[in-house]
Amino acid sequence: MSPEEIQKNLRRYINISLEEAEQFLSLFETVRYKNRKVVVESGDYCRYFFLVEEGCLMTYYTDGNGFEHVLQFATHMWWSGDLPSLMNNVPSAYSIKAIGDTSLLQISKPNLDRLYRELPKFERYYRIIFQNALVAHQRRIIQNIAYTAEERYLQFREAYPQVELLVPQKYIASYLGITPEFLSKIRRRLSNRK
């Protein structure tokens, strides 16, 4: 990813120079994962915070019966990682895997701390993206307890149209808290209304 692309994206939240974008990028390393490769395994320690360059990451919790409960998707220029594990050095409660071949920029906790020290405006940047993530999380809780499955699916499509193109239906269904078969019924019903 070029410094210009980083600068353009980050300028939605903070004013940074090209030199600061270059300094930001210098603290990351690029890693690539093949489709379905696990990036963070539940029980392991999450050592990095990830910025998706290309592809998609899926964060999920595996219950005692082996069922994967999808919590989050992250696509181009979205962040992902198990923050409690990364920040508190505790085992991860979640797993994160690549959906499709995926390229990531990853930053370690020491480099993240260094970024905050050397370029304090990035604390503001991360505060804003974490606030936005909290708002989205709270919105999702309300949707899960107060909306029908069809309403949740329509909200998902509106909010994340690119995700539906990248992610298999079974994972979208899990994210919505329904079965893949029920999601197929919803899609057919919506298609028939047109």
From TrEMBL:
- What GO MF annotations does this protein's record show? DNA-binding transcription factor activity
Organism of origin: Flavilitoribacter nigricans (strain ATCC 23147 / DSM 23189 / NBRC 102662 / NCIMB 1420 / SS-2)
**InterPro entries documented for this protein:** cNMP-bd_CS, cNMP-bd_dom, cNMP-bd_dom_sf, Env_Response_Regulators, RmlC-like_jellyroll
Any Pfam family from its record, for instance, is: cNMP_binding
GO terms for CC? Answer: cytosol
Q: From which lineage does this chain's organism come?
A: Bacteria, Pseudomonadati, Bacteroidota, Saprospiria, Saprospirales
- The Cyclic nucleotide-binding domain sits at 12-115
What protein name is recorded for this chain? Cyclic nucleotide-binding domain-containing protein
